[in-house]
Amino acid sequence: MGPTGILVIQRTLNRGWLSGYLTGLGAVLSDLFYAILSTFLTAVVVDWISQYQVTLQIVGSVAILAYAIYLWNSNPASGLATNDRLAPTPGLKVKGILKYFFSGFFLTISNPAIVFLYIFLFARSNFLFEASTQNWWLYLLGFLSIIAGAVGWWTLITWVMKKVRNHFKPRTLMIINRTIAIVLAVIAIYGFGYAVWLLYHQ
Q1: Please, which residues bridge with residue 86 across strands?
Q2: Which residues contact 142 (CB under 8 A, 6 or more apart)?
Q3: What is this structure's pTM?
Q4: Residues 18, 89: contact at Cβ < 8 Å?
Q5: CB neighbours of 173 closer than 8 A, spacing ≥ 6?
Q6: Taking the mean position of all CA atoms in its chain, how far away is CA 88?
Q7: What is the radius of gyration, based on Cα positions, of the chain?
Q8: Engineered SS bond to 161: which of 12, 28, 70, 102, CB 3.0-4.6 Å?
Q9: What confidence tens digit (pLDDT) does each residue in 86-113 have?
Q10: Cα distances (angstroms) measured from residue 77 to each of 32, 45, 86, 170, 192
């Protein structure tokens, strides 16, 4: 799941399906960006990641920790109806749509380790760019498949959370909020500590 998956679940429970889904779609754009880089610029990407790995790790960890603190102090009960169940989520305006979408994008893109996963998977399936190829449609099909798989994943996650959303009461949601905040804080602290370790050993 990772930090993005946890964030998608939390937003779906607290703010409704659309908020979580938009966050997931932002992550899809980040995945596509790294997939394209991994395919066409493998050597350059590896060098770039190696050069800025510590910076990306620190920035991503600080962002995750900041959100964990915000989440711990937030009051999920503010979105509840008078019957002690979650109220329907109002439609989002353009500002809200951009907020959820790009927060998902930047959170996911701050984890460049996904590049190495793509490189490994692409090498296993021989999905590597060759300048002499004339079958460009195969690459297009590959990238469309990545998008479809990622969108399908976030659709499934948010749909399940939407179905169980109205079964939560304020105290249950508060426990979920703080549990997610603790998990995110642990991820952030680990990432920051790993970045410091890399910096010390360079």
Answers
A1: 80
A2: 39, 127
A3: 0.62
A4: yes
A5: 13, 14, 76, 77, 80, 86
A6: 24
A7: 19
A8: 12
A9: 444 555 677 778 888 988 888 888 776 6
A10: 36, 44, 8, 5, 31
Backbone φ/ψ region at 158: left (φ over 0), alpha (ψ -120 to 50), beta: alpha
For tokens 């109205």, what's the residue? 166
Closest CA to 22 of 146, 107, 142: 107
Q: Give the tokens for residue 170.
A: 């304020």
- Could you read off the pLDDT of 112-139 as tens digits, one per residue? 667 766 766 665 556 666 655 567 777 7
Token pair 């997939």 is at which residue? 35
**Distance from C-alpha of 179 to C-alpha of 67, rounded to nearest angstrom:** 13
The answer to whether the beta carbons of residues 21 and 156 sit under 8 Å apart is: no
